[in-house]
Amino acid sequence: MNKTIVSEPMNTAKPMEYRKSLRRLYRSKWMMIMMIPGLLYYLLFHYVPMAGILIAFQDYNLLKGIGGSPWVGLDNFRIIFQSPDFPLIMKNTLVISVYRIVFNMLPDVMLALMLNEIRSQWFKRVVQTITYGPHFLSWIIVYGIVFSLFAPGSGLFTTFVRDMGWGELNLLTDADYFRPLLIGSDLWKNVGFGAIIYLAALAGINQELYEAAVVDGAGRWRQMWHITLPGIRSVFVLLLILRLGSILDAGFDQVYIFLNARVYDVGDIIDTWVFRQGLEQLNFSIAAATGVFKSVIGLVFILSANKLAKKVGGSGIW
Amino acid sequence: MVTKSDRLVDALIYIVLALFALSTLFPLYFVFVMSVTPYTEVLRNGGFVLWPSSFTFQAYKEIFASSRIPDALQITVFITVVGTFLNLLVTSLLAYPLSKKSTPWRNGILLAIVFTLLFNGGLIPTYLVVRELGLYNTIWALFVPGMVSTFNFLIMKTYFESLPQEVEEAARVDGCGDIATLVRIVLPLSAPIMATVGLFYGIGHWNEYFKGIMYVTERNLAPIQVVLRNMIQTPSISQELAVNSTNLAMLPPETIKMATVAVAILPIVLVYPFLQKYFIKGVMIGAVKG
């Protein structure tokens, strides 16, 4: 009932509204023209691919295109879920993701806390400058570095172990060492960078809180527990939400480069599997369907993580 | 009121941090050492050592004497320079109008842009779009599919919003249109953010690997990171470098590999001081909600 009453006056107001927005559009014509290249980019490389997920429901053929390929309903998803690879790549993805959350987020916080305790400003600056540098190196370079240390026969560590008579190592193709190498090199590359955001949060803490705590007789650890840690809690929660939201991204950039056939059992993740299915074996529809599955789960995860964060008392991302 | 245990904790923190900083630098140092160690040294020591008694730049001469590495560097320099320029152009042309509340459909457009952070079509549909557009196996495929980074876009938009509006209004009163205001007033005021975002984009291009294996298959379009990865993986270097291998026989393959790694690291090290000056600021602006 209410609806119809409200919509009456709106209808009469429409032509004027319309003319007004048209005038606004004309006045901003240069602004609109400026945006064309950028909007075209988002349309072509983000929204057209979103429409392209239609091929997940087809038996897509490069020559026939989307228009000519036969529709197969959910067959592709059935094939994926029944594939013997599926449980394996799900497990690897989740395990590597969780490892990354634990062994990246906590060291980030620890580094920030340690830097925060340092009184010597130059020492702090030097350590910071050095440690966030590797963030800007490519994973290929990081792999090169891993190679220089652990390559069979020539790596520094490998030859050292050999010379000590402890045996020949081949860590790069050893399933037991794949994940530690992955996480370890990630740590080396990104901890310094990850600490920055916490340092900024720490710098924002009101110094009077510490002075008051000292007056009240709180020691170093109590200050940390009651002032410092609560000061970075919201940033931590925020980053945790983002991490949880992308838990099915186990770090394709790095894993693909580090991966070799000998370690598929522990290192093959959803994205590397999709890459091989799609671009190497040209099973476009299977690969796209896996991508859709991943994107949908990711969206659900990030929305629920955000909701959870709000419920727990902090603020979400939006 | 510094207690003894406090001082102990302090000392421990200094030691841990110093060790951490050293372990960050050490691998970079070792890559360089490997790249300059002569074969005779390696044979004598039964492997690479931390401190070779002599060194040679032969490996660097070899990689620049081949055509493979210089060609790949040329591709990478091209996409870094042209790509970064176009990135900055397109990103600022998008960010400026969207930093103004008066722009029609502003909220809808922003929502559509931010939504791409939450949901995407995935690898395969994007790959098919690149093919359909005729970019496949062209140099454009190496940077056009990443023309605007949403993160960089948000940094720039936030910065434009923070500029004093009075200056722009004065320019408009003096008869400047939207484009003139952007070019004459806003961009000159935005040098620090352009430097930050430009460095982010530039480093992204320099480190480009995946577009190089997904969108181009021709060898002469391979960027340096692709060639480097192939080199690290193949045991025989001469095949990858495609040069006369008489000189190469005098060098262990690892030396050539590490020399190439060092060449790929060098530009990053060179821009690092600039990067450092701006990027913390950039990260912080970006962390503020778009």
TrEMBL record, chain A:
Pfam families: BPD_transp_1. It comes from the Bacteria. SUPFAM superfamilies: MetI-like. Keywords: Cell membrane, Membrane, Transmembrane, Transmembrane helix, Transport. One of its GO terms (biological process) is transmembrane transport. The chain crosses the membrane at residues 30-57, 94-115, 136-161, 187-206, 227-248, 282-303. InterPro entries: MetI-like (IPR000515), MetI-like_sf (IPR035906), UgpAE/MalFG_permease (IPR050809). One of its GO terms (cellular component) is plasma membrane. It is found in: Cell membrane. It is a multi-pass membrane protein. Residues 90-305 form the ABC transmembrane type-1 domain. Belongs to the binding-protein-dependent transport system permease family. This is Putative aldouronate transport system permease protein. It comes from Paenibacillus endophyticus.
From TrEMBL, chain B:
GO terms for biological process: transmembrane transport. Keywords: Cell membrane, Membrane, Transmembrane, Transmembrane helix, Transport. Coiled coil: none annotated. It holds the Pfam family BPD_transp_1. It is found in: Cell membrane. The chain crosses the membrane at residues 12-32, 75-96, 108-129, 135-155, 182-204, 256-275. It is a multi-pass membrane protein. GO terms for cellular component: plasma membrane. It comes from the Bacteria. Residues 73-276 form the ABC transmembrane type-1 domain. Belongs to the binding-protein-dependent transport system permease family. This is Putative aldouronate transport system permease protein. It comes from Paenibacillus endophyticus. The lineage of its organism: Bacteria, Bacillati, Bacillota, Bacilli, Bacillales.
